[in-house]
Amino acid sequence: MTTVTATARVELQTPEGWVAVCDRDRLTPGRGVAVLLPDGSQAAVFTDRQGGLYAVANRDPFTGAYVLSRGLLGSTPEGRVYIASPLLKQRFDLSTGECLDDPAVSIAVHSARLG
Amino acid sequence: MTTTTKPTVVLVGYGMVGHRFLEALADTGTADRFRVVVLAEEPRPAYDRVALTSYFSGKTPEDLLLGEPGFLDTHGFELHLNSPVAEIDRAGRTVTTAAGHTVAYDTLVLATGSYPFVPPVDGKDADGCFVYRTIEDLHAIEAYAAGRKVGAVVGGGLLGLEAAGALKGLGLETHVVEFAPRLMPVQVDEGGGEALRRTIEEMGVTVHTGVGTNAIVVTDGAATGMTFTNGQRIDTDLVVFSAGVRPRDQLARDCGLTVGERGGIAVDALCKTSDDAVYAIGECALAVDGRVYGLVAPGYEMATTVAQQLAGQAAKEFTGADLSTKLKLLGVDVASFGDAFGTTPGALDVVYSDSRSGIYKKLVVTPEGALLGGILIGDAEAYSSLRPLTGTGTPLPVPAESLVLPAGLGAPVSLGSSALPDDAVVCNCHNVTKGAVRAAVTDHQCTTVPEVKKCTKAGTGCGSCIKLLSTIVTDELEASGVEVDKGLCPCFAHTRAELYEIVRVKRIATHRQLLAEHGRLSGEGCEVCKPTVGSIIASLAPELPASGHILDGEQAALQDTNDHFLANIQKNGSYSVVPRIPGGEITPEKLIVIGEVARDFGLYTKITGGQRIDLFGAAVDQLPLIWSRLVAAGFESGHAYGKSLRTVKSCVGSTWCRYGVQDSVAMAIHLELRYRGLRSPHKLKSAVSGCARECAEARGKDFGVIATSNGWNLYVGGNGGATPRHADLLAQDLTDEELIRLIDRFLMFYIRTADRLERTSAWLERIDGGLEHVRQVVVEDSLGIADDLEALMARHVDDYQDEWAATLADQDRLQRFVSFVNAPGVPDPSIRFTPERDQVKPDLGVLATAEDLLATLSADLLEIR
Q1: B402 pLDDT higher than 80
Q2: Confidence of residue B678 (pLDDT cuts 50, 70, 90)
Q3: Which residue from A52, A96, B528, B603 has the highest number of Cβ atoms inside 10 Å of its Cβ?
Q4: Average pLDDT, stretch B249-260?
Q5: What is the third-level CATH fold of A9-114?
Q6: How does pLDDT run across B100-117, given as a tens digit for each residue?
Q7: B185 and B55 assigned to the same domain
């Protein structure tokens, strides 16, 4: 997690190195956007009310649909920030990728930073 | 071989009692000590025969199946369907099926049930004569009734009235013929029978009592009428015999087991027949008290008795059972319990009878005031609290007369669970006492009714005790100091209704502020409270410093994906689009536009149940393009994506229909335009019917309007779906203005007080005082808030704007409609379609794994190269 301090470009780490994906301004706290990465894969990028920056794979492993960017962001009583899939509502920890409703399932997490 | 070392149990008959036997055997934990072979006559596994009639109200045969899926396999029970047993060889300990398959047994359990008694009248075998026992019987009746007009039921008992309800439901003019001088002669007395008769006749069923059936009139091999013992004759196309049941004991007779003089396989208190290796349970058995029990609860007890013996556990003897019943026949509540006829020496009656509203209540008490039994017709609400008190010998905690008087005439609202002693039986079907329910909470840490049901089995039979069960559980939780968390979600300790009041009074316009000032967690909020608070802010927007558009400011971040994209997400991540078609009325030009848009964007089209057209398969970037076309043609958002008003369905009404008495289409359009866009705790559906034929199905809606020759009747709280509920009449013969005023108040009162995702049907059943309370608030303004409710609705109507037109006009709102924020204009490659029936369907193949999509993409690239 990186703290956002000023308007800047959001960058994700990929096998090809850091890739700039969008302006910080395009992120609304609590909502996500989908981005297309150079290898054709998709990531979902979020920011929360504290300014935290998160990126995970956009594919919802329960349905196969590329929709996680369109879920709602929330936090657990313990403070874990997660995204709830818009389809069947399973929640995924945005920092670890772990599914909070089914420990056997997880999604890939990208490092994100402001460049 | 291990199988040869296990004793074999053969169960003949797989009905409800047979199934219960298997469950009970599984419960003992010894099922794996036996090889269990089930020989079933019917073509399907055990189903809920008690609920048979619900087949006609939309339940499928699959819905009626008993037991968890996989139950038989889990325990290794072998089931053979379509395998009626033809012969039992007791000396050789084998049974042989009609198909000639022989199975050896160590223990034989007969659960063959009963067969419908058909009186030996002429013509009883003609076409059009049926019995009412199995799903196959219902299929046959349904098929035969199609296109026919009149049906008659022979027998006015419990099953006969069920059958009459079914015929009525099939649209037949229905007769009931009962030999006894009153309906349900076994369960109710003369007064009760009279109340029942009046109510049932008011529904249009013709009741003939005190007459026998002489013969079925047969023409060309099919029934065309019937004659009665009093010389009367009626025309009928179809006859259902439902004149009682007889135990199926033929197999037992043939192999020389002792049977009763009037039928039934004689068993002892342990349900053992005259052969030590053979048991009989349920309706085929003649119990040790000399009775054959035709109810499911005693059968369940017998099943448990036998299972416990096989398991080598202490078995509870079956020496007789309570015949209490509570059911809804043709929509009328009927309950009969304990000594309903007052045959106990010295028994006294307390009776309340209101023939106007078809209510009859009788309690039988001892001179000291202890409850012996009773009959409740028309209002059996008190059954669940009275039955457990029956026969306890303790005088009632309140005077018996106060228990039969209607609410408002000095009657206590309910007895409450504290009046019950611990040994009172709460669930009759599974013989669960109040003490056992309390223990589930105190000793087994159950905190909800579903958990208690699972733990004790209480409430899993007929379900009539669930209300009492929930009272006991709540009381027990409160008594043990467990805080029952009524909070909306982990973030808020308040209910939705409380949050609504906070937002309204404190004029809080953001989730962030509400969470900071009233939340129990700090944090981000969650996927439950964000849309809920978003909806409350949208409902109250005219009163708050908040935009009336749900995609403005923080509101955009609170919406579920459907509201956020003003469309409905589908399984592959594409969206569907539903333009509003008020009242289902549409011009040919507009239909053509919908067709052109669907064609040009390659959308799958389907007619919805709410009289509009759903267009599927749009990618997010296509939504603004599609809507520009639709808005230009005069369409606006249908809010199919929102917890808000969906449609107001209508029949064609008095303009065209020869039966119509009011212009239902005009009213439906007026209502749909008035309430469009109104955000509420859950979706709202409505309909307007132009006459009492009710073609618009208004009583299945949250608010339904049915035309009368004097105006409109308003019904509220109806629902279709998984838990159908007919709407209740709120007010009748209203003018247009009166109707709209009451709906304004009703909807705003609902929005103010309902829980999250609580439809009006559940809300009406939950809130204190129920329908009567809502009527007082909405019709009589008992809380003095009617003016506020109306004013709020007036502001909603004034401030309404089409969300899609407003979105297209604003660049900030539009910028979210891209598949990829870093590649505008690039379509989402995961959204693909394949052809089906001349249209498209989602291609789920590319979604199977992330690699599948990438592989498809590289194939595309190769093609381009």
Answers
A1: no
A2: very high
A3: B603
A4: 94
A5: Rieske Iron-sulfur Protein (2.102.10)
A6: 999 999 999 999 999 999
A7: no
Using a CB-CB distance cutoff of 8 angstroms, which residues of chain B are in contact with residue A33? 821
pLDDT category of residue B825 using cuts at 50, 70 and 90:
confident
**Tens digits of per-residue pLDDT, B544-583?**
888 889 999 899 999 999 999 999 999 999 999 999 999 9
d(CA B104, CA B85): 13
Domain containing B171 — which CATH number?
A: 3.50.50.60
Which stretches in chain A have pLDDT values below 70? 1-7
Among B485, B526, B552, the strongest candidate for a mutation testing the A interface, having the largest count of A CBs within 10 A, is B526
B280 within some domain: yes
In B575-650, alpha helices (H): 588-601, 622-632
Judged by CB atoms closer than 8 Å, whether chains meet at B826 and A36 is answered as yes
B331 and B303 in one domain?
A: no
Residue B452, helix vs strand vs coil: helix
| Average of per-residue pLDDT across B687-710 | 94
d(CA A82, CA A84): 7
Shortest Cα–Cα distance, B722 to chain A (Å): 19
Q: Residue B52 falls within a domain, yes or no?
A: yes
**Cβ-contact B126, B222 below 8 angstroms:** yes
Whether B350 and B303 map to the same domain: the answer is no
pLDDT tens digits for range B444-499 = 888 777 788 878 888 776 666 776 787 788 888 877 776 667 789 999 999 999 99
Distance CA B820, CA B840 (A): 24
Contact at CB, B822 and A35, closer than 8 angstroms = yes
Q: Which pLDDT score is estimated for B865?
A: 40
Structural domain boundaries, residue B673 = 645-799
Disruptive mutation site among B488, B524, B526, B814 for chain A (greatest number of A CBs within 10 Å): B524
Most B-contacting residue of A46, A49, A60, A82 (CB-CB within 10 A), to test interface: A49
CB contact under 8 A, B573 and A67: yes
CATH number at residue B355: 3.30.390.30
Task: Indicate the domain borders of chain A.
Answer: 9-114
In a shared domain, residues B303 and B330: no
Domain match, B171 and B37 both: no
**Cα–chain-centroid distance for residue B156?**
25
Q: Is B821 on the interface with A (CB under 8 A)?
A: yes
Cβ contacts of B573 on chain A, cutoff 8 Å: 65-67, 70, 87
Residues B847, A65: C-beta atoms closer than 8 Å: yes
**CB contacts, 8 Å: B847 with chain A:** 59, 63-66
Number of domains comprising chain B: 6
Mean pLDDT computed over every residue of chain B: 89
Last residue of a domain, one of B777, B799, B821: B799
> Which tens digits make up the pLDDT trace of B620-663?
999 999 999 999 999 999 999 999 999 999 999 999 999 999 99
- For residue B488, is it within any domain? no
Whether A41 has its CB under 8 Å from any CB of chain B: the answer is yes
pLDDT digits (tens, 9 = 90+) for B717-758: 999 877 788 999 999 899 999 999 999 999 999 999 999 989
The angle, 0 to 180 degrees and rounded to 10, between the axes of the packed helices B466-479 and B434-442 is 50
Rounded to the nearest 5 degrees, what angle is found at the Cα of B786, between the Cα atoms of B782 and B789?
140
Check A63 against B571: CB less than 8 A apart: yes
Classify residue B259 as exposed, middle or buried by CB count within 10 Å of its CB (0-12, 13-18, 19+): buried
Residues 234-253 of B with CB under 8 A from A: none
Nearest-CA distance from A1 to chain B in Å?
A: 15
**Buried/exposed code over B772-805 (b: 16+ C-beta within 10 A; e: otherwise):** eebbebbbeeeeebbeebbebbeebbeebebbbb
Nearest to A72 among B527, B572, B830 (CB): B527
Measured between alpha carbons, how far apart are the two ends of chain B, in Å? 65
Q: Are residues B219 and B238 in the same domain?
A: yes
**What is the reported pLDDT for B860?**
63
Task: Give the CATH number of the domain where residue B452 resides.
Answer: 1.10.10.1100
